[in-house]
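Re: the request from the purification team.
They wanted to know what the chain is likely to look like in 3D before they choose a buffer screen. I agreed to run a prediction and write the result into the notebook, where they can find it.
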Amino acid sequence: MAEITVQEIIKPENLVYKKTPLMTDKALSYCPGCGHGTAHRLIMEVIEEMGKENDTIGVAPVGCSVLAYEFMNVDMQEAAHGRAPAVATAIKRLWPDKVVFTYQGDGDLAAIGTGETIHACNRGEQIVIVFINNGIYGMTGGQMAPTTLVGMKTSTTPFGRDVSLMGNPLKITELIAQLPGTYYVTRQAVHTPSAARKAKRAIKKAFENQVNKIPGLSFVEIVSNCNSGWKMTPVDSNNWMEENMFPFYQLGDIKVDGKLIEK
């Protein structure tokens, strides 16, 4: 029997999956099991499939998202903590034909950057905001964030979040969905192949809205784990996310074509 060479196996007609060239060759520095790498890949796959790699500008602020420029092979701009929507607004207004997106964590977007987020959404800026929600400040030590669940233990809430002291978790995605400037608002996940496929469709819809110049901002939340910050194995953190995060941060579209979805 003739020996099959590697070159024969990797012929285009035999490939079922290949890495998008819009992800750099640099090894991901995120913790093993983190959802950031999958979210990066989905965004870059969408940009490649739309043929917009030369017209895309991403904005990444402080937090784990600050590393995005090392892995996303498109033009990237750094922003001060929480200020990504403001920077993205300026870029889009200066270059309206560019595809502009922000990539932000919950400590950034829903805490120090709440004002920038709310007002960019309210103005209906034609940008895409991708929001990674893992319920804590991941990079800086696992402190409580606005999205931390009631009773959830963090480095600054070792006995769990106490509503009487710290208030309630902030569902900022539902909040911005109420604003007239938002056109598409959705919450997805990337921890399973099925979830990743749904997230990719949502991301594609968000970018298509911008490319088609539909008035309004598109907002994609991705509920993710932080196994290091949560002090769990990757498998346990995904299970904990399904059992605790998803009931509170329910997955699915919240606003489509400028209209709120009735639950």
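For the purification team: The radius of gyration is 19 Å.
Please add any questions underneath this entry.
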